[in-house]
């Protein structure tokens, strides 16, 4: 194959024609001699005629052989000769034979053949007509794939005529695909107009394999290391220099390229990054760039759904090969476009398994509606719920990692005025109670939310604060909470009461160090053995001291209850003022 490709660089004339490559992306095909000599192919409106234009008027070829075949391709009609066309096309030969068998074309009449499904359409068929009549054919990397597909469609093989169009186009096609990075993409992009022929003839596979080989190789290792815009890629960042060109491909061709790249052993992290790059290019926010007003809406939606499902299915399975943020974005797209629910559930489970390695910024996926929250909270709630189902057997330490993550995320979104109370509470309450060892970040998020939403009712504020517990706050956070006018009265009162209980216990503990009970306990320990031996019970004095201490505790509790009532009244008065 390589000798065949390299031989295309110079002209080889023979009775079977030749292939000449002048420039890396340009080829001239010289066909074999035609059985009918035509001086020129002339266009008249939408009709194409074999004529000589030496006198400035249209007339048939010098042999004065009248046109006996009309081929219609789209809106264009080509007035041709059966002998020139059927001698090189097995498909046209069969159609002409079938028409004649049906009685068409007798008495000197012209046969009419309609080619509605010809790959490449009118322009490609014009090149085929040139070839059949012995004119040279100019071919580029952009036109070679449609011409090769059309030659196969018309069955223009060497079995019918030596040096026929299939073998001619195949030589330059292989050369264009493997010699130049830029031309490989031109060939692959041109395949979009000739599907499924380009797929069945393995043109897409050859291009995909060539791209994969070059992407897995140092760009300096092959010639013309340029992107599809003609800019050198050699200076681009390390392994990702090929992302930009690959992201221009249509989804079906992109899938084929990614599959080839995976087979080449490219690192999963690079594959995942490439998929993310392609998605960012083709989806602006949540709008598919392919949106076309000429295509029915239901077909566009179907294409979007197939695209997202294909992207999810092609994600590398390796751990940490795709970022959590990109996966969340795919969930967002999937929910909007209503992709397969089972596929979406698997994606959410995958994200849930990554939460313990994420940071709060990884969970930020932007919304684009005017009335939406800045970031999509709903997808995070779904993923956290999926994590809870997975984490039933996880240790408390692992649960606390995700607890800190969610509390950190809450602080990032709490100031959003469009964030509803329901969503905020759902996210706060999504984790089990043992997922938090410290409520400082949760308190900070709640305070920020209450500040950004001053119109909340007292009951609504109390429901927001329900998950926050006094004993999980630091001393500074407790002091701040007791002076925080944004917190509901019930919470402030409860925290003050608990603070008084804490102080009372502290006082009791300090008094016990000099309490007579201590002396009694020492005496009891010293005489313990003696008491046990003689069967003595505890001295009456010790019992009296214990009873007195119990009474003191009861009095302190009553005093605390009175303090609570006074505090509630004071707070109520201050609120009224």
From TrEMBL:
GO annotation (BP), single: protein ubiquitination
Pathway(s) it belongs to: Protein modification; protein ubiquitination
Pfam family, one: BTB
Domain NPH3: 240-502
Keywords attached to this entry: Ubl conjugation pathway
Record domain BTB: where: 67-141
Domain of life where this protein originates: Eukaryota
Keyword Magnesium listed: no
Family: Belongs to the NPH3 family.
Protein name: NPH3 domain-containing protein
Species in which this protein is naturally found: Gossypium klotzschianum
């Amino acid at each position: 194959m390589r000798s065949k490709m390299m031989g295309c660089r110079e002209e080889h004339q023979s009775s079977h024609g030749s292939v000449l490559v002048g420039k890396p992306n340009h080829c001239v095909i010289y066909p074999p001699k035609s059985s009918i000599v035509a001086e020129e192919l002339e266009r008249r409106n939408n009709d194409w005629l074999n004529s000589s234009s030496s006198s400035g008027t249209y007339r048939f070829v010098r042999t004065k052989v009248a046109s006996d075949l009309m081929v219609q391709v789209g809106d264009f009609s080509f007035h041709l000769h059966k002998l020139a066309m059927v001698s090189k096309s097995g498909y046209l030969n069969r159609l002409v034979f079938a028409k004649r068998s049906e009685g068409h074309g007798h008495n000197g009449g012209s046969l009419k053949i309609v080619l509605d499904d010809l790959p490449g359409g009118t322009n490609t068929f014009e090149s085929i007509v040139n070839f059949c009549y012995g004119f040279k054919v100019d071919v580029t990397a952009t036109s070679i794939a449609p011409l090769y597909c059309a030659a196969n469609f018309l069955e223009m093989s060497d079995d019918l005529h030596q040096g026929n169009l299939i073998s001619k186009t195949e030589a330059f096609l292989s050369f264009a695909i493997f010699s130049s990075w830029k031309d490989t993409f031109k060939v692959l992009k041109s395949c979009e107009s000739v599907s499924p022929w380009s797929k069945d003839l393995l043109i897409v596979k050859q291009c995909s394999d060539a791209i994969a080989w070059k992407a897995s190789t140092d760009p300096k290792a092959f010639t013309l290391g340029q992107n599809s815009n003609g800019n050198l890629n050699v200076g681009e960042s390390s392994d990702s220099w090929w992302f930009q060109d690959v992201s221009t491909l249509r989804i079906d061709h992109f899938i084929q390229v990614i599959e080839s790249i995976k087979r080449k052993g490219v690192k999963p992290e690079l594959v995942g990054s490439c998929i993310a790059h392609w998605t960012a290019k083709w989806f602006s926010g949540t709008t598919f760039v392919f949106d076309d007003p000429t295509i029915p809406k239901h077909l566009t939606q179907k294409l979007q759904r197939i695209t997202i499902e294909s992207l999810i299915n092609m994600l590398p399975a390796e751990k940490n090969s795709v970022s959590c943020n990109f996966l969340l974005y795919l969930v967002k797209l999937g929910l909007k476009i209503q992709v397969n629910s089972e596929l979406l559930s698997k994606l959410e489970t995958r994200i849930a398994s990554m939460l313990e390695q994420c940071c709060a910024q990884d969970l930020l996926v932007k919304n684009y509606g005017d009335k939406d929250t800045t970031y999509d909270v709903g997808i995070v709630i779904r993923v956290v719920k999926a994590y809870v189902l997975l984490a039933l057997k996880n240790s408390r330490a692992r649960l606390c990692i995700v607890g800190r993550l969610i509390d950190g995320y809450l602080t990032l979104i709490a100031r959003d005025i469009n964030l509803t109370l329901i969503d905020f509470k759902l996210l706060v309450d999504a984790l089990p109670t043992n997922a938090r060892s410290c409520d400082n970040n949760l308190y900070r998020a709640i305070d920020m939310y209450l500040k950004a939403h001053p119109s909340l009712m007292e009951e609504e504020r109390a429901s927001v604060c329900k998950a926050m517990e006094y004993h999980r706050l630091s001393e500074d956070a407790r002091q701040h909470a007791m002076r925080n006018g944004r917190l509901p009265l019930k919470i402030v009162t409860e925290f003050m009461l608990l603070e008084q209980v804490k102080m009372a216990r502290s006082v009791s503990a300090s008094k016990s160090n000099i309490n007579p009970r201590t002396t009694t306990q020492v005496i009891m320990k010293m005489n313990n053995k003696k008491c046990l031996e003689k069967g003595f019970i505890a001295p009456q004095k010790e019992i009296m001291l214990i009873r007195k201490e119990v009474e003191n505790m009861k009095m302190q509790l009553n005093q605390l209850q009175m303090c609570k009532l006074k505090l509630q009244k004071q707070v109520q008065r201050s609120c009224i003022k």
